[in-house]
Specification:
two-stranded antiparallel sheet; 14 helices; Rossmann fold
Length: 426
Amino acid sequence: MKVLELFAGVGGFRVGLEHSDPDLYVTKWANQWEPSRKSQDAFEVYDYKFPNSKNLNINIEEITDDVFEKMDADIIVGGFPCQDYSVARSKKHEMGIQGKKGVLFWQIIRATNHIRPKYLILENVDRLLKSPSKQRGRDFAIMLTAFNQLGYSVEWRVINAADYGRSQRRRRVFFFVYRNDTDFAKRLDDRFEETSSDDLFIAEHRYDEYIFTDGLFARQFPIVKQPYKNREAFYELSEDIVEISDGFTGKVWNTGVMRHGRYYTIDTLPLGDERPITLGDIIQPPEMVDEKYYLTDTNKLEKFQYLRGPKKIERTSAEGHKYIFAEGGMSPYDDLSMPGRTMLTSEGSVNRSTHVLFIDGRYRLLTPIEAERLQDFPDDWTKFKKLSTGEVVEVSDRMRMFFMGNALVTEIVKRIGDGLKDILES
């Protein structure tokens, strides 16, 4: 299965899929571009780790349709930015639908339209399902409609990695997108044939079977087999994507499937039978930790304690009115018996979200290796990069933390790869 990795970062999807089956999943092309940055560190790490694929370091918008059409990829993977996906008709209507400039999801749609892969595996922050705040679910409904118009179905699930045995409480929405003429889709059509009926009960029952039993996520990430708090909804999407952009009022829960313009969504809970890896399990022994990671500066330690403590601060809005900003307290250091919190790109800086460890009576930060372990990358995965000159140099700790804050838990991708392999073999 030839793979195209978009928004590749330092190769999280590739690491996960190759961990699943390196002979099945062969990444032939990759693109990574960090806008507004002269230094392209993530690409340089990727190019160093994977010199045998065609690695592009350009803005995805500059990849021409002809270049995409020459890629005979079976699978497109990528974690794309969360943006405003609203659309509108062009002023003169000749150009049809126009998404907001710079919204990179439309580049995935463009690549899909020209490559026609059998499958896509995509990832985003879970708040996408409730975006935007004034019209919750609209952005995701637009995405479902865009794939439906290209002849694809979409299965989605919000997955907290710690619920499935990993070391980080990181919630992300994953999509399994498949073309409607694949064998998998055709087998589903036989099972879903009764959904052409107007009987809503029959339709929902068939989708229930998919979500709880037959779907890729059902097989790989088991859930309690009933909707949480009876939250479920069944919708038929308008064929007019602008109509959805302007007037969508539906619900989108953390689990669902869209086929042929209809989608069924429910709120689910993980089965909860997998023990997570803890911070204590992944930290390096003291003799392996450089002194620079310890918080020996009293002022810096006090700053962390302030940031993590409760506070009420009077602030002034841009319009000039005063208000109280309140923030609850958190432990002065992270619990080693728990999985890590969600790692952000600011990890390692003096920031409320940064992990602070207390070991043998001393406070310290995570090391880059520990950050890599939180995302299930091999140790020192990001230690080196290859410059355009061919010179191999070390990467700064700050950038290594930034990479991991942007990355994904590769073992979750590995399990998705296992699920797709089962589908292909069946």
